[in-house]
Every structure is written in structure tokens, then in C-alpha cells.
Amino acid sequence: MSLKLIYHFQTSQNQDQEFRPASYAVIYFFSDDGFLDERQLRELAKAIPNADHEGLTFLNLDDLKSFAARVGEELAVREVRLISVQDYNIGIDGAKDLATFTGVFEKYGEIVVNETVKKKGLFGKFFT
Amino acid sequence: MAYLESSKKFDPVRPGEQWFFYWKTSAALWETRILQCPVHEVIFLPLYWGFHAESSTEWDFGKVRPERDLLRLTQLLTQHGRKFCWLLPLTPAPFMPNGGIPVSVARVLSVGKSGVHLAALDQEQNLNKMFSFFEPKVFPSFASFLQAFGTFLGTHKVKAPLWGCQFFYSQDGETSSFLGDSSLAFEQGFSRFLRKAHPEGTDLTDPRSESELKERFTGEVGQLFSSAAESALGPFWAGHQRIVILGAAPKETILRSLPTGKSQLEYTRDLFQHFVNGDQVSSALLTPEEKKESLQWILSEHFGARTLELAYKLVPTVSNPDEDWRPYSVADLYSGEHVDHFDKLGLRRFLYRNYRWLYQNRESLEFTPEAIDQSQHKIKFFNGSSLTRTSFAQMLKLFMLGQRVLLDRSGLGEGHEKRLQLFLLENSIRMQSVNFMTATQICELGDGRLIIFDGAPLRENPEREKFWNHIFRYLSFVQPEVQMDDDVFGLWRIRPTAPHELSYLDVRRVNLYNPTSYKKAVSIRTHRQFAFMKMIDPTRATARSTTDGVEVELLPNGKIALDFGHYEET
Questions:
Q1: Helix (H) or strand (E) segment spanning residue B198
Q2: Helix, strand or coil for residue B394?
Q3: Interface contact A35-B125, CB threshold 8 A
Q4: Any alpha helices (H) in A46-97, and if so which ranges?
Q5: Topology of B331-474 in CATH?
Q6: In this predicted model, what pLDDT tens digit does every residue of A94-106 receive, in sequence order?
Q7: Measured on CA atoms in the order B551, B555, B556, B562, is the torsion positive or negative?
Q8: B251 and A CB contact within 8 Å
Q9: Which stretch of B197-201, B213-217, B511-515 has the lowest confidence by average pLDDT?
């Protein structure tokens, strides 16, 4: 199974004389079986300091990556691909059908590897 | 021949809802495809206006490419006795390449609410990308097409109604127009709009006011496309249609691309929510693999030919009152622009728990003799804060015509409040006041009931379900009680009795569907007011009569219909 996370970078804002720092918001988070349960994600986001777990928003990319790794660990998935909305949109622009659309999720973004989830070696595959 | 046989199962030219995608096949095959359409069904022709662009200002209706020969198409339809309607997109259309616009003006991709481009996978798994209608070249191109098409229709005297269609997608419980956009083209257009509307400048530090202004700008652009179409095509113009396209939302595009796809259960849930909202839907994007069994049954049985004919006013509201099965529901909710008003009062939750799928949200009150007659039995809930002078007067008239009306007076304007008091006084309406959770006045006039309550105390009251229980008990509402899981779905219909059924007041049918992969049980209690008559078309389902009513077993992807005769209470 693979996990994909599409995120949106929001610049800092001044609203009602309140400063909101730049942040990384999770837009979509899904596996091959569909979108992940939002309640579970909010629960897992609580482990990231200073994160807005209700809005699934993180102060920096490292925090977002930590969250992605945390979810991967929970679901025993080693790799999570992080794709920015900008990259996703570039991918859509170039896609024309189902095959090229699904290719967007293999071609763009960066992979966060969860080292705590062991990679299946050749022998490991025989024993699962 | 084998191709034609297999095309009955998968036919990109006829993707659903009696639509005919003329551009998806050779013009030489039009006649054969038309003959495959049932004679009695109206054919809907979505206009792929971008397809007819020979250049940015020249439009071809068959001189250059035979697949654009709309005259020949309409002549074939007429020759074979097929009625048809035009569907003119007034927003990007997800079932057309580039959203339906010419390549020459497809410059800026539309951006949805979450910042992603709007794109949808169609039946043939092509990815159709929506382009922004706020790109300045789009409207002049559209207007040029309208002029050319209007001339075409007038010259050739093509007599068929033309509907302006706005297309929507549904995601996370919210329905959004494909016109909605936050691309660079939109932002630039919005800047121009602000400069024109507020030449002295405007303060946009408040996100709410910026959002309201953007909404206003989007509305005005939508209105521009709509009024241009109505003006150019006046003699043929039949009105507007709002159509929700299943499978078109950004999240759905991702889900549909995954190995598991979007499940029957999820589609069914969406479809039933659309039913409650009174939405017209299109399954034009869905593949045969997606549109099978439960979904196909529900679409054909409840969103099929008859529903379409009513929506497009092709038949009178009640064509044969003695024979017709009509959709049956117990309540209409008129919340106005505050679409979540009745959610906040707990009414929607109460209706979902006790009268699931037996209510509908209505955008506006249809005040015609046929509509009033048809909905005589329904309880009507009005949000006082959204009533206009006209709808307020119509609401009171419904009460006087013997209907059951509930009015939430919280937020009712001072003018309406005075008119209401004057109405009650002048007509010597019998009234009783009750204070149960909130101040309530019950007014009676013959069979009519007008229940005026203050909704404000109900918003935060955790016991408010008791209030609605009392209301429905007072109104003596009679309906079989259905107990079923959340992922079993059912819709009711009603018809008058036949000559051999005179012991009944009416006959009601429930269609039950199980779109899950699990066996499900449904229990229907008749409370000695209904008699189980028969079951119809069980598919992977059984029903047995008990002393209390009927017990139903639905296997995975099973369906069944049950008829009940309604006894008069003694």
C-alpha cells in the first residue's frame, strides 16, 4: 500500500490585527484504498508540537513530514509521498487520461521514509 | 452488430439521463444511435460549443465537419419521431474536453476551493480539465457562438426548447458550481471589478467582506453568461437547470483513479442526499463498472425518464392522477439562503432518524395549483428570516387552503410579524398557546394548521428532539415505521387506489436498496394502519409477513420493493 499527501502552503496573514504565520495545510491524504479517516488524522496530528490538529495545519515542512511519517508508522506503511498543490496542478496540466493522471502521484513530490517501518527484504516477503 | 450490442452496455454517446453526445461518434452513425433510443424518451443534446469553433469568431454547424451538422442531427431526430431539447452550458462542463470551451480561449485552468485544478475523469477515462470562465476571451467567444447558434436555429426553424445549464459538483456535503474559481484569471477579473465598483478604493482587510465581494463578482459573471444566452436565444429559451454531476468533484477524481475506486455505497449516499436536496443529477461521467446494480437501479427508478420529464416541464405535473406512482415525502423544508437553518434546530436530524429520505429541502416555494394539490399532504417548514413578502403571503394562503405549515418566527422581520398578527386577528383564527421547550402558537382553520414557534431556544437545547416528536404526534402523521441501518436506503412512492382497492385510502411503495457487501435486515412496522400487499422485483432479497409488519432480508447489492395499502383509521 502507498500513501499520498497533497498539501497547500499558505503564506503568513494579518487578519483582524492578528498575525497568522505561514503554514502547511493538508488538503488530501489517501492510500490505495481511499481517503484516510479525518478523525484519526486529527488524533495523530496532536503528536506534532504547535500544530493546528483540527485544521491539519503545520508551521513548517519538517512538521508536516513528521506528521506524514507518524501516519505511515500507524498504518505500517514505509513511504509517504508529499505533493504540493502547485506540483499536483502542474501534473494535472500535463495529464490527459487516467494513466497520466495516476502517474502524477508517482512523478511529483518527495518521499518521506519512515525508518521505523522495516523495509521488506527478499526473505521478509516470504514470511508475510 | 456486435459493436452495437456491446454499445448498449457501454455507450459513450449515450452516457446517461437520455443525453446524446453527438460529438463522440461519426455523423454517419447518428441515425443508428438515434434508433437505439426508446421512442417515448426525450433526447437531451448538450451543446459542446467549443467543438463548433472553426476560429475564434467563426462557427461551423456542418459545412466543414459533418460531426458539427446540427441541422442533420435535428432532422434525423424529427424524422424518427424523437423529441429533443438543447442543453447549453453556462458554466464549465466536466463531461466535455476543456470544460466545453474552444481551445483558442482555454488559457487558464480553473482552481477549486482547496487550490487544486478542477478536472474530472469521464466515462472513457479521459481527464477533462476545466478552464476559467473569468479569462477575458471566454465571454466574447461565448457571445459570438450564441449569435451564430441563434441565427442557425432561426434560419432553419429548429423548434426545440433550449435550457441554460449550470453544472455543479458535490464534495464533503457542499455543492459548488464549476463556475467558481480562484485562478489568476479570476483574481485579475476581481481586481477590475473592485476598481469599477469602488473607484475610490475599498478596504479588504476583513476576509469576510472580501469573500462576500468575490461571491458577488462570481454571481455577476454567472449572470452575464446567463442573460447573454437568454437574450440571444430568446424564442427558444425554456429556462435554467441546475445539474450536479456525479463523480466530478476534485476529491472524487482522485478517489475514482484509485484501484478501489468510489464505492457503490458512497455513490448511493451522495445520490440520496441529492434526492433530499431536490437536485437534478447526471451520471454522464460514470463508467459502466461504477454505474451498476444499486446505483443503476436507483438512477433508473427514481431519477429516470419521468423525473426528467417533470424537471424539464415536458409533461404536466400530474399526467394521470389515477395511475401514476408519485414520489412520496412527508415534509418540505424552506430554509432560504440559510441552508443549515433546520440543521441548527435539530429538525433535520429528527427527520433523518424517524422519516429518513421522506423529506426534501426546497429552494423556493412552487405556488401553482398543480404543485399545491400534489403536496397537500406534506408538512411545510418555513424559516421566517428568509421569507419575502410574496413567500410570506403564499405561506399563509397554504394554511388557508388546509395545509399544515410550521413557521420559525425567530428572525421574522418586523413587517412580517405585524402582518402575521393582523392576519390572525382579521380572520378570527382559533389559537392556542403552548410552552414546551419554546413558545408555540397552534392556529387552526378547517383542516389547516399553522404552528408558529420560536426556533432560537431549540438551537442549544439537547432535548429538542422531544419537541419535534410532539409536533409530529400532534399532526397525527401516518407512515409505516422502518428500522434499517444507515447504509440501507429506501425511497417511498404513493398512488391512488384502483377500483378493487377501495378499502384503502392510498397505496404506498417502498423501494429498498442494499449497496453494501454485507447482508442487511430491514424491519417495517405497519402499526395496524397499513396492510402489506405484495413484493415486487426482489433481487437477492426476501420479505416475509409478520404480525407487526414485514421483515426484509437484503443480500449484498440486493433490492426489493414492497406495496402497502393504507387503511382508514377507525
A1: none
A2: helix
A3: no
A4: 61-74, 85-94
A5: Rossmann fold (3.40.50)
A6: 999 999 999 999 9
A7: negative
A8: yes
A9: B197-201
Residue with cell 403552548: B434
Q: Which chain A residue has the Cα nearest residue B127?
A: A97
Q: Is B259 on the interface with A (CB under 8 A)?
A: yes
Residue B502, all three cell numbers: 377501495
Model pLDDT for residues A4-54, shown as the tens digit of each residue:
999 999 887 765 566 777 899 999 999 999 999 999 999 999 999 989 999
Contacts of A14 in chain B (CB under 8 A): 205
Q: Which fold has domain B2-311?
A: TIM Barrel (3.20.20)
CATH 2.60.40 in chain B, residues? 481-567
Dump pLDDT digits (tens) for B330-356.
999 999 888 889 999 999 999 999 999
Strand order in the sheet with B439-445: B359-361, B331-334, B379-383, B404-408, B448-453, B439-445, B430-435
Residues of chain B with CATH 3.40.50: 331-474
Of A33, A88, A97, nearest to B125 by CB-CB distance is: A97
Q: What is the DSSP letter of B569?
A: P
Amino acid at B542: T
- The CATH code belonging to domain B481-567 is 2.60.40
Pick from B374, B552, B390: nearest CA to B382: B390
Chain B residues close to A24, C-beta within 8 Å: none
pLDDT higher than 50, residue B159? yes
